[in-house]
Amino acid sequence: MADYQAPIADMRFIINDVLGADQLRALPAYAEYDAATQDAILEEAARFAAQELAPLNVSGDAQGAQWHADGVTTPDGFAAAYARFVEAGWNGTTGAVEYGGMGIPTVLSAACTEMWNTSNLSFSLCPLLTAGAVELLSAMGSKAQKDVYLHKMIAGEWSGTMDLTEPQAGTDLASIRTRAQPDGDHYRLFGQKIFITWGEHDMAENIIHLVLARLPDAPEGVRGISLFLVPKYLVNGDGSLGARNDMHCTALEDKLGIHACPTCAMAYGDNGDGAVGYLIGEPHQGLRYMFIMMNQARHKVGIQGLAVAEGAAQHALAYAMERQQGQPMVADAPKNAPIVYHPDVRRMLLHMRAHIDVMRSLAYDAAMQMDLAEHGADEASRKAAQGRVDLLIPITKGWLTELSTELTSIGIQIHGGMGFIEETGAAQFLRDGRITAIYEGTNGIQANDLIGRKLLRDGGQAMQTLLEELRATCSELQDNNDLGTQAENLSAAVDRLEATTRHILELGRQDSPAPALANAFNYLMQAGYVLGGWYAARIALAAAAEQEHAGRLARARFYNAQLLPRAEAYASAILAGPEAILEPDIEQALAP
Question: Which of 66, 131, 173, 316 is the most exposed place for a label (fewest CB within 10 A)?
């Protein structure tokens, strides 16, 4: 079993020393969250992960969620663990205090979320979706909707989910067919949705679905989509639960991983009455509203990628410290040394841990920028922070989850033949984590978002501001006698990112978006690795300033020497141009 206390020192170091939590504590909204309070929350979240969630991970994977004609049952122990999760107040970490939430900083909640997802990804998806639904309803719901639903959802008595895609639609939400018929002060929904995470279960007494559908007068395409709040049970005027709504789960998907998480196919209006729903915000603005929830979810999916990589790394290290095989040909290896001393195993473990340091930094930095965007001291600082959030979200989701697949696979490799055996538990991290690169928008969509909605929309201004900060860190490295050798590699990587940025911007001026998007994934990955180099440098500078943390300095040096060079490969592919991708006749190019 993983040690959920182990990452706390790294979490604390990144939040406090690398990212500078003092800037948050200086804001009135977070003045009471001093270092002692932060540590107490982290310690208790780790305890819950280790004692309540982790013991259910393997058994939940084996048993899975079960579909019945009258509903869905979760694996043994899940409902009881959820009740304790809710009782402890964990469901409302970032929820507004006025509606019963803790109101803690998003960056602190991100650390808690990481531990819960490391311990049990399937379970943690339920509160993750609820948190996103709460965020959306808080931003766009009417006062009446907030008063009826937010207290219960923040408390966790009611869970939330988002219902977007349909069998014929996939990612193309412009083609959804679910319809909403006006009926007095509400609407009647008819249609089907698929891939609805935690769409039906037995852990909460009510489930609040946020459903995309079309009104009768809706224009074609995404501009004709509206958003509706559709509860599993209707809510009476006094807040009590009333009749069951005309909606139900028709099946559960049989998946590669996250078996304990019910991924549902949902039907609305099968009984003929239509599912009662309530319009959120204005008609035909549903997709714009849903992006509030989707951006929250995309950030948290990036954290999920980090979380399963952390679990896989701990699992692999524990095995490598015990497994004896052969005699490593290195000077520091004792007699009968475990495989951790073998050079290639050492390389793989450093590869995992050095990546995780910078993955965590990126995920937490995005979270801290969310805090600053909401509670910054003035409008200018809030706007700047939001611009940084917008830029970092697709990189956080895309790069971290791509790395997650790689790192969990390496975790299996370190186990050798035993990694391929389910008994060791190494494979579950890969099976569970593989979905993170797909859901909440595939990583190809994240790359397109980074180019189209972020880079081209503002002419590269947000990226240029970020590059200037990276260059300032290069100067700090250069001025440090012990770290100056790392500055050359990082500075060269920043130069190349600036060059590829200019190249993409030039391609974006063409009539077709295809040339700019052809290498979008390569650009996302390059940006991720260069940002990783930036965070590795900041980790090294903070560790050196304290004249300790030799392990962190070693991992930062490993990242700079062994991992940052990957950015150059992506840059070369981008600067080679889009022709190799776009010019061939695709059917001919892929023919046998």
Answer: 66
Q: pLDDT, tens digit, for every residue of 471-523?
A: 999 999 999 988 988 999 999 999 999 999 999 999 999 999 999 999 999 99
568 and 505 housed in the same domain: yes
The amino acid occupying position 39 is D
Tell which of 128, 155, 182 closes a domain.
155
pTM above 0.90, yes or no: yes
Residues 131 and 188 in one domain: no
What are 36's two structure tokens? Answer: 């002692």
Angle, alpha carbons 100-101-102 (nearest 5°): 130
Q: Which domain holds residue 274?
A: 159-286
Of the residues 440, 468, 488, 583, which is catalytic?
A: 440
| H-only helix segments in 508-565 | 514-518, 520-545, 550-558
For residue 481 the two structure tokens come to: 């006698």
pLDDT at 328: 81
Task: Report the alpha-carbon distance of residue 551 to residue 544 in Å, rounded.
Answer: 11
88/124 same-domain check: yes
Query: Do 136 and 63 fall within a single domain?
Result: yes
Residue with tokens 């309530």: 278
pLDDT score recorded for residue 35: 93
Q: CB neighbours of 421 closer than 8 A, spacing ≥ 6?
A: 427
Q: Is 506 a catalytic residue?
A: no
174 and 76 both lie in a single domain: no
- 149 with 196, same domain: the answer is no
Residue 549 confidence class, pLDDT cut points 50, 70, 90: confident
Which of 107, 129, 155 represents a domain boundary (last residue)?
155
What is the bridge-based pairing of β-strands 179-183 and 66-68? unpaired
Q: Give the total number of structural domains in the chain.
A: 3
